Amino acid sequence: xxxxxxxxxxxxxxxxxxxxxxxxxxxxxxxxxxxxxxxxxxxxxxxxxxxxxxxxxxxxxxxxxxxxxxxxxxxxxxxxxxxxxxxxxxxxxxxxxxxxxxxxxxxxxxxxxxxxxxxxxxxxxxxxxxxxxxxxxxxxxxxxxxxxxxxxxxxxxxxxxxxxxxxxxxxxxxxxxxxxxxxxxxxxxxxxxxxxxxxxxxxxxxxxxxxxxxxxxxxxxxxxxxxxxxxxxxxxxxxxxxxxxxxxxxxxxxxxxxxxxxxxxxxxxxxxxxxxxxxxxxxxxxxxxxxxxxxxxxxxxxxxxxxxxxxxxxxxxxxxxxxxxxxxxxxxxxxxxxxxxxxxxxxxxxxxxxxxxxxxxxxxxxxxxxxxxxxxxxxxxxxxxxxxxxxxxxxxx
Length: 397
Ligand SMILES: Cc1ncc(COP(=O)(O)O)c(C=O)c1O
Fold this sequence. Notes:
The protein is an alpha/beta fold. It is built from 15 helices and 15 strands.
């Protein structure tokens, strides 16, 4: 489908739909008129096949308790195989009502109060909460930022693991907010450290399908690294929610290849969740995995173009603004410190630019002066956001 036709058909106004991103601006930012570039969801309607599958289900009109049909697991297995060369077995699969919920449960199931849990920062802020709220010891290793290209400080990771009796590493792969798709070499080194020090790994791979350049930067699941060498200590959590814009349908996966870990999970998950699955979420997910690939390619192309526009415009008109390399996710990470004092960033972004963004310090206390912008939206929103930033920067000099 032509780009313009796709946008016309799928990009939509979300105001007054109980959208957290669009309708909670007053409550969250004190100003309902900001242009919302926060919250990791999209302004695109789901693939038609998903809408149709939901309509068929809704037309039936009964929403009693449901279970996960084999066909759902098969659609997920086929998707992972064809998209990422990842071979999953049905008995590895467990289902949840959201990745963050699963992170909370897994921290409880896999560690004891006081144990060290490692995260690489800056990172998606619920990672901090999942550790702190459960009274585990938060252990962080800061990624190394070289002009927007982020890498792992392996020596520091090893030091943190050793010094803090780390029992669990929660990784974000691809990494929100810095946009890295970890290479097989990086993953191998990281997971080998976990093996050496007997650290379990929960790999949050919710952004797995959002590869910006799959040839240069292909996503490698922690389960397939080094031909699956580490899969006895890895649990993957993911879901169709970022890929297909179905977050509020509350359907996610916990993938556990190791039989002992699976038993531990099964024996304990009841302490954290007693809900059955969300049937509508699985109806949507199954249709998306079976029929959504074409739609996803179109959306990825829009995200790539939005990123290119943002990068080239800043390069030309605000060249000291550092844009992190976007390899995966649809979230771009900007360092505005060359133009804006870190403690003025909120006033600058909200009052001068009229934008609602995720602020850097939400992802790491060290990252005041950074902002995260969502690119999975109508190009006109990205253009407006970028132009507002460029204009506000020009007015300062
Ligand atoms: C890394 C990561 N994990 C989890 C989530 C949220 O997952 P869920 O809505 O399934 O809890 C997000 C959403 O932005 C995310 O970026």
